[in-house]
Every structure is written in C-alpha cells, then in structure tokens.
Design brief:
Structural class of chain A: alpha/beta
Helix content of chain A: 25-40%
Largest sheet of chain A: 6 strands, mixed
Radius of gyration of chain B: 20 Å
Number of domains of chain B: 1
Strand order of the largest sheet of chain B: 1-2
Radius of gyration of chain A: 19 Å
Number of helices of chain B: 14
Number of strands of chain B: 2
Number of strands of chain A: 10
Shape of chain B: globular
Strand order of the largest sheet of chain A: 6-7-8-3-9-10
Order of helices and strands of chain B: HHHHHEHHHHHEHHHH
Strand content of chain B: under 5%
Number of helices of chain A: 10
Largest interface: A-B, 39 and 27 residues
Oligomer: heterodimer
Distance between the termini of chain B: 36 Å
Largest sheet of chain B: 2 strands, antiparallel
Helix content of chain B: over 70%
Chain lengths: 291, 326
C-alpha cells in the first residue's frame, strides 16, 4: 500500500510485469440497465493494453467508474495498490492515473499553452495560501512548467500554436493536445478513450508513436479503448475484450483474435480482424458512445 | 422596489435638465456606479471566470449592509470593526450556500442562490427585533460622518473649497473599486485563476487533470460574497439607512445587465458597464414623466436586446471567446 501523496511520488512503484490496475467485479447500472456487470481485469505495468468490444459493451462506462466520474454500484478496483472506487476524479488523477475523453475536452477559451500549464502538478500558486506565502516558489514553478509545456508541445508539433485558443485547433490537433496535456500531469498510467477516433491517419500514427515512445522511455502504462482493429492488433501488447458489461477475453492480440467467444461477440460482426489496408477501419455502427 | 438604486434622495430632480449641471446629482450617480462596480466584480469572478451563475449577490450585499447597521446601531461596535465582521459573515454564508448547491448543475445552483437572497431579504423584513423590518435601521453612520468630514476637510484645504457632501464617499468607493479590480485582475493571472478558467471551460476536464473543481467553485463564491458585502456596506453609507427592499433580486438583475454591457471575463469592463447602466438608470430623471421606474426598466431591457443583437460580447468582452464558447 502506498498512501504517500501521489504528487510527491511520480516514480513507478510496481515493477514491470506486475499489474498496476486491478478491477474486480465492478458493477455500474443505470436503473435496470447493467452497463458494467461485474467486469474484472488487470492491466500490466508498462503495457499498452487495448480495451475493445462492441458498442454498448460498457467500455466507456467502465472508464468513468474507475476514474471516479461515475459512482460504482459494486466491486473493487485499485491503482498501484490504492483502492480507487469511491474516490473523486481529481484524487484518482493525483494518484497518477489520468484519463482522456472520447469527445475531446480542449479548454476552448484558453490558449494551448495554458491548457498545458494547467495540468502540471505541484504548483503552490494553485492555492490562495500558496500565492501569498510562497510567491517565489510559484514563479519558479511557473517557469519550469512553461518550459516543460513548450518542450512537450514541440514534440507534438503544436509549439507554433501555443498562443492560439485551443478552441481553434482541428479535431486531430485537439486529440494530440489532450494527450500532451495529460502527460503534463506526469502520469503513471493513461486511460485513452478512442484516441484515434476522428483524426486523420497521419496524426493517428504520430499518436501511436508517442504512446510507444512514452511506454519505452518513461514506463507509462496505457489502457485505451479503440475500434480500429488494425491499430488494436498491431500496436497493443494485450487486448481485453468486453461484451455486455463483462470481460469475456484477455490475452495477446493473436490469442484474442482466435478466441471463439470474441469472434461471436465482436469480431465476427466486423470481419475485419486482420486488417492490412492502411487506416481501414471497420466502422463502428453507431460511432457514438459505447455504453 | 420603488426607491431604486440610489434610494429616496432629497436630490430628486424629476422635471428638468438642471440635473445635468448639478454636481450633487452626478456625485450620487458616481457613488451608485461605484457600488454597482464593486457588486459586479464579485459577479464577474463567478460568472465570467468560474462559470458559476450566482443570482444571489444581493443577499450577500444585504448581509454586509445589515451587519454594519445592526452592530453599530444596536451593539455599539466600532464602525471600522464591523467591516471585517460583515465580510466574514458574508464569506460564511457563501460557504453555507455553496456547500450543498455547488454540487448541483449550473442552473439549479442559480435557482438556489436566488432562493438564498430572497431568504435573506424576507428575514430582514420579518425579523423586526433584529432589523426593524421595513422601517429600516438609521443612525449607524455617525462614525463614518466623522471620517467623511475629515476627508472633506482635506479637500477644502487643498483642491476644492466646497466639495459635495457625498464626495468623500465617492472617493472611498472608487478607491475600493481600484484596489479590488487590481487585486482580482492579478489573481486571475495566477495559476489559481487558471484553474478557475479551466473549470469555466470544462469542469470534468479540470477534474480529470487532478483539480478539485468543487473547492475552487466554493472559493470563488466565498470571495464574491465578501465583495458583495463590501458593496452592501457602501450602499448603506450612501443611503444612510438600510431597508429590505434595497436588496431585492432586481439589484442583482441590474448588476447582470451592467455585467453584460461591460463584457464577460473582463475586469475593466465591470466598471465601464456599471457606469453606463447607472447613467441609463438615472436618465429618466431628465424626462418630464410620471413613471420613471417603468421607463428605466424598459430602457435597460432595450439595451440588453440591442447588445445581444449587435454586440453580445459587450464593451470589453472578446468576440472570439464568445464564438469559441459555443
């Protein structure tokens, strides 16, 4: 168990190979509809894990529950040993598990740079008391954060847009900004809800490269919801499959691809499992929220 | 509310253009505009920078005004000491209102704040033992009069041989406007202000990045309540009495009209909008008509419609922010 303030301990605790996120029989229902119906899964430290499943399987709802945006109706979940169900979203984010949203949430009337600087942790100037008592520490941290932000923006090819309103960015640029912004929090794990949806293949490839690099260089763990089977099969170490609110399969892309249950529940419906055409995506029937 | 923003003054000049050149009249408009500016600085912090719609500002104003009046007149507390007490009580009420209602959706929060302000006003009307009800409280301003006369003395000795009686109040009100505007302006430039703006843009995004949105909204409301209380104290001094009808929701709505005229998310716009709306509010006095009260509301309504049609961002707001906000 690790109860130290997350902001103070950004380093990875669990050694590679152990699970960093564990969910056990998580339940979320809306009235009589069980969107998540006893989902259990483990995500390995340092992995890039895809969460797939037909529309309505409960993937996004599962994300919302384990990041604190929905209150769970049962089960347990822990992040690096800390129980997380029942905690508020900001606490979970402070532990180092940070999410993005299916529909990007660029802070439209703030500059791209402000979007980035906002996300940085450990800024005493975010508290009224800190502003008064530690003005120098506030300024110093602002300089650090600005440098970090500009460097990250450079890496995401967004540096030229730093002073523009985030609301003026294209859909793909917003996805990149959201990922870059999440990285400003120095996360240990990122939950990405359909990061490739609605962006062009070039930007999508760049996003995948970033994920690979971050995993390799900084040991960031990724769990991402994705409908594009080409991306899922070629870019993830593990694939977890949900259907009807439960996890029905969990394994390497090859194992999942040949799993009868998965074919029945999901891949059969799309028949695009081995994908070879660049960017060919079995279109999600609704293209909307998976719940 | 029949007395309106500046109360029943002996300066009412409802029949001619003489008022145009009347120093006393313009001094009073200036005081009113300054009070409205202070009132709106709090609203700007809430509405323009945090995205929470506070319709209860008149309630916080009433708390400030009544605290000073009651403590000075009934408890003989020194006037200057009642100012921090009034601010503290207003902050406490801000937290009390915010704790349950800031968890609600924005529109429900707005309704809850109106209910709060009306509860304050009706309490003031009915708790006669404490507030004297509709008769109001008088005579709490003798200590202020001394301060005012001292300032008048300085003025007479230096720049102006015969300053208007309200001129010292005008100076103090606008000095407060300056200090508060600068303070809020700089606060907005800090990392704290950046978190507020993020919450205005998308509360869930801010939470997902580790920001305790609820705590920030609560702080924003508490600061606004404190500023509202200061406006109430100045209002009490300018009227020389406090009565419940001065704190009707109408005051808050006029505040919003001024806020929109000046422009959202702009602190310089607050003063500009307040001065403009205060002049519009007093303009019917120059007309030889019987129904001043109706005319001023028709005028303000007309201005709001025209603003929405031709300049929704107000005088100092940024049009691109309006567009991106969609």
């Amino acid at each position: 168990m690790n109860d130290a303030p997350a902001t103070a301990a950004r380093a990875t605790h669990a050694p590679a190979g152990e699970s960093i996120l564990e969910a056990d029989e998580v339940v979320k229902h809306f009235g009589g509809i069980y969107a998540v119906d006893g989902a259990s899964l483990e995500v390995t430290q340092g992995s890039i894990t895809a969460l797939i499943g037909p529309n309505g399987a409960g993937k996004t709802t599962f994300f919302n529950v384990i990041t604190g945006f929905y209150r769970s109706d049962g089960g347990a979940a822990s992040f690096d040993g800390d129980p997380i169900l029942g905690r508020s979203p900001h606490r979970i984010a402070q532990l180092g598990m940070v999410r993005t949203f299916q529909i990007t949430k660029a802070l439209a009337r703030m500059s791209v740079l402000d979007n980035m600087m906002l996300a940085a942790p450990d800024q005493p100037g975010e508290h009224l008391l800190g502003l008064i008592t530690k003005p120098r520490a506030v300024r110093r941290r602002e300089r650090e954060v600005r440098d970090d932000a500009l460097e990250l923006l450079e890496g995401f090819n967004l540096a030229k847009l730093a002073d523009d309103y985030a609301g003026t960015l294209s859909g793909g640029q917003r996805k990149l900004l959201e990922l870059a912004r999440a990285l400003m929090t120095k996360p240990r794990m990122l939950l990405l809800d359909e990061p490739m949806a609605g962006i062009n293949p070039t930007l999508g490839r760049r996003l995948l490269d970033h994920m690979q690099r971050l995993r390799g260089e900084e040991g960031v763990t990724f769990l991402f919801i994705e409908h594009d089977m080409e991306v899922v099969m070629n870019h993830s170490d593990r694939v977890i499959v949900m259907a009807s609110g439960r996890v029905i399969a969990d394994g390497t892309p090859d194992q999942v691809r040949s799993d009868e249950k998965v074919i029945d529940a999901y891949l059969g419906a799309h028949s695009g499992g081995t994908g070879n055409g660049g960017g060919a995506r079995p279109a999600a029937p609704e293209g909307g929220k998976s719940r | 509310m029949t007395e309106g923003l500046i109360g029943n003054t002996d300066l009412v000049l409802g029949f001619s253009l003489d008022a145009f050149t009347d120093v006393g009249f313009w001094t009073r408009v200036g005081v009113t505009a300054g009070i409205l500016t202070i009132f709106n600085l709090g609203l700007q912090l809430n509405v323009g920078y945090t995205g929470i719609v506070n319709f209860g500002q008149a309630g916080f104003m009433a708390i400030g005004a009544y605290t000073v009046a009651i403590l000075v007149e009934k408890e003989s507390v020194p006037f200057l000491l009642t100012i921090p007490i009034g601010i503290a009580i207003a902050i406490a009420f801000g937290l009390l209102v915010g704790l349950p209602s800031l968890r609600l959706r924005a529109d429900y929060f707005a309704i809850a704040t109106i209910a709060f302000a009306e509860a304050v006003r009706l309490t003031a009307q009915n708790a006669r033992g404490l507030t004297e009800g509709n008769q109001g409280i008088y005579g709490f301003d003798s200590e202020w009069d001394n301060i005012s006369e001292t300032i008048e003395g300085w003025l007479e000795a230096t720049v102006w041989s015969d300053p208007d009686q309200l001129f010292p109040l005008l100076l103090v009100v606008w000095a407060s406007v300056t200090v508060l505007t600068l303070g809020l302006y700089f606060l907005q430039k800090t990392p704290w202000g950046r978190v507020l703006r993020a919450i205005r843009e998308d509360e869930d995004a801010a939470r997902a990045l580790g920001k305790n949105a609820f705590a920030y909204k609560l702080q924003s409301l508490a600061i606004s309540a404190a500023i509202g209380a200061i406006a109430g104290m100045f209002l009490a001094l300018s009227l020389r009495f406090v009565i419940p009808s001065e704190f009707a929701p109408t005051f808050t709505f006029i505040g919003y009209a001024a806020l929109i005229a000046g422009g959202l998310a702009s602190y310089p716009g607050v003063a500009a909008g307040a001065v403009f709306i205060s002049i519009v509010y007093e303009a019917p006095r120059f007309l030889d008509i019987e129904n001043e009260e109706s005319v001023r509301f028709i005028l303000i309504g007309l201005i709001l419609i025209l603003l929405m049609a031709f300049r929704p961002q107000g005088a100092f707001g940024k049009r691109e922010e309006m567009v991106l906000g969609e």
